């Protein structure tokens, strides 16, 4: 297991694609992975935030980029168990801020003015990003004729995200008529979606470079969700595996992202299709951009969000890839 | 799962994507449940052009639910003063308020069955089937 290897800790720190370990309000710190990893690496919370600026930036604590306070509410995820679902972190919040930025709302409003776009988030985790979009379609798209759908390999994430989106929709007072939330599908990437059906795709991938990627869970295939009949240990292993799935990106942290990029041609709408993809510095983002630029004149690529510079390089960035 | 979702779904197996038989997926042993959704005429009007109407008709007949064989014209959705017509309300009810909470979705090309449990559809494939 990667956690047991002390040497992997710095990598994880830099990239930021792990749950934040604020400690506050987490009664079971000690029993979870976080305790184990922090213990192994001997890192205090202070080192953690200092090293990666994880989750600190948005609060304006001086360690991160200066970003305006989010004007739109962040969906609540207090009902989610972060033992086996990715906890919203700086990467998640960068997506919220980018999707609601002036440049992106202008772009989306123009592109989807007359449409009823299908928004698909791949790998919803807690659902914080999809819920944000679903609850704020008026400010983002200029109207609420928007369909939202999510996917995740992790069944616990599917259930959590479904709850998060529905709750955010209920609480969103800003909408005259709410957008339509379809569902969260338990599937690999865009697995079961019809070709060219997706107007807007969002992906905050597992992007940490790792030696291997865990096998996908076999929910339903061997009924491993019946955890009550299993020992505490196997529940722990299963949860570790599910959390690993949320950050482990294989070589260059790009194995899962590359698979998704390859699917864009066949899944994005032939005229309107656009995707927002998050990358971290170790993904060699310049190389990724170059590769996408080689797709030809019918595609455009632009960096539309980043987490600010830290020690001379941008930790996280968001690419907008769209058909032109 | 809302019936509208089925308008966007196909078999997860790569080899099935190009076969017209893989769409729509066929509900089997479906348990249906109704859940309220706010009505929006604007939404209905704009979703119509996105629907694969024949597929939706086929689906509904498999579920013994009524859906007219032809797409309603935009004018049929509202009456005087933009009041929604009964057919608009029926369409809303069918697409957005009717949910499959349990059962299976079956691919017409390869026969693979995808389970729906507690409203969540499982499209994970064993490695040898991807
Ligand atoms: C970095 S987390 C992002 C979670 C959430 N979107 C957010 O921004 O907070 C990555 C998510 O992708 C999911 N995931 C990983 N590989 C996947 C795959 N092949 N298909 C679908 N989801 C995947 C993980 O289970 C996890 O929930
Ligand atoms: Zn099939």
TrEMBL record, chain A:
The keyword S-adenosyl-L-methionine applies. Residues 18-38, 211-235 are annotated as: Disordered. SUPFAM superfamilies: S-adenosyl-L-methionine-dependent methyltransferases. One of its GO terms (molecular function) is S-adenosylmethionine-dependent methyltransferase activity. One of its GO terms (cellular component) is eRF1 methyltransferase complex. Residues 216-227 have a biased composition (Basic and acidic residues). Belongs to the eukaryotic/archaeal PrmC-related family. The keyword Transferase applies. Keywords: Methyltransferase, S-adenosyl-L-methionine, Transferase. This is ERF1 methyltransferase catalytic subunit MTQ2. It comes from Aulographum hederae CBS 113979. InterPro entries: DNA_methylase_N6_adenine_CS, Euk-Arch_PrmC-MTase, SAM-dependent_MTases_sf. GO terms for biological process: methylation.
UniProtKB/TrEMBL annotation, chain B:
GO terms for molecular function: protein heterodimerization activity. One of its GO terms (biological process) is rRNA (guanine-N7)-methylation. The lineage of its organism: Eukaryota, Fungi, Dikarya, Ascomycota, Pezizomycotina. It comes from the Eukaryota. InterPro entries: Trm112, Trm112-like. Pfam families: Trm112p. It comes from Aulographum hederae CBS 113979. Belongs to the TRM112 family. This is Trm112p-domain-containing protein.
């Amino acid at each position: 297991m990667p956690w047991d290897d002390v040497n992997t800790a710095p990598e994880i720190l830099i990239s930021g694609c792990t749950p934040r370990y604020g400690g506050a309000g987490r009664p079971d710190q000690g029993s979870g992975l976080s305790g184990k990893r922090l213990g192994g690496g001997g890192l205090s919370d202070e080192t953690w935030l200092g090293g990666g600026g994880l989750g600190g930036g948005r609060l304006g604590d001086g360690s991160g980029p200066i970003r305006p306070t989010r004007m739109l509410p962040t969906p609540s995820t207090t009902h989610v168990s972060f033992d086996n679902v990715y906890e919203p972190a700086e990467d998640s919040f960068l997506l919220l801020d980018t999707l609601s930025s002036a440049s992106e709302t202008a772009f989306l409003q123009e592109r989807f003015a007359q449409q009823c776009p299908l928004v698909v988030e791949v790998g919803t985790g807690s659902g914080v990003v999809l819920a944000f979009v679903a609850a704020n379609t008026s400010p983002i798209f200029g109207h609420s004729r928007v369909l939202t759908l999510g996917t995740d390999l992790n069944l616990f994430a599917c259930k959590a995200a479904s709850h998060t989106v529905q709750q955010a929709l209920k609480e969103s007072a800003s909408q005259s008529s709410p957008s339509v939330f379809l569902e969260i599908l338990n599937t690999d990437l865009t697995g079961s979606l019809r070709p060219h059906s997706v107007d807007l795709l969002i992906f905050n991938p597992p992007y940490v470079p790792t030696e291997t990627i865990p096998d996908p869970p076999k929910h339903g295939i061997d009924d491993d969700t019946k955890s009550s009949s299993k020992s505490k240990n196997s529940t722990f292993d299963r949860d570790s595996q599910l959390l690993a799935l949320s950050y482990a990106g294989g070589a260059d942290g790009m194995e899962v992202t590359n698979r998704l990029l390859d699917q864009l041609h066949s899944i994005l709408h032939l005229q309107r299709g656009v995707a927002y993809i998050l990358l971290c510095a170790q993904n060699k983002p310049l190389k990724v951009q170059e590769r996408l630029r080689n797709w030809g004149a019918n595609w455009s690529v632009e960096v539309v969000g980043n987490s600010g510079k830290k020690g001379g390089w941008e930790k996280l960035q968001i690419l907008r890839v769209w058909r032109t | 799962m809302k019936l509208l979702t089925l308008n966007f779904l196909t078999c997860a197996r790569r080899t099935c994507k190009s076969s017209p038989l893989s769409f729509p997926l066929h509900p089997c042993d479906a348990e249906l449940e109704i859940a309220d959704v706010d009505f929006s005429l604007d939404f209905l009007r704009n979703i119509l052009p996105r629907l694969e109407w024949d597929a939706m008709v086929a689906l509904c007949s498999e579920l013994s639910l009524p859906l007219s064989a032809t797409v309603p014209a935009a004018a049929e959705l509202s009456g005087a003063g933009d009041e929604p017509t009964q057919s608009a309300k029926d369409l809303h009810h069918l697409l957005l308020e009717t949910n499959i909470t349990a059962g299976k979705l079956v691919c017409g090309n390869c026969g693979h069955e995808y389970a729906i449990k507690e409203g969540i559809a499982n499209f994970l494939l064993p490695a040898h089937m991807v």
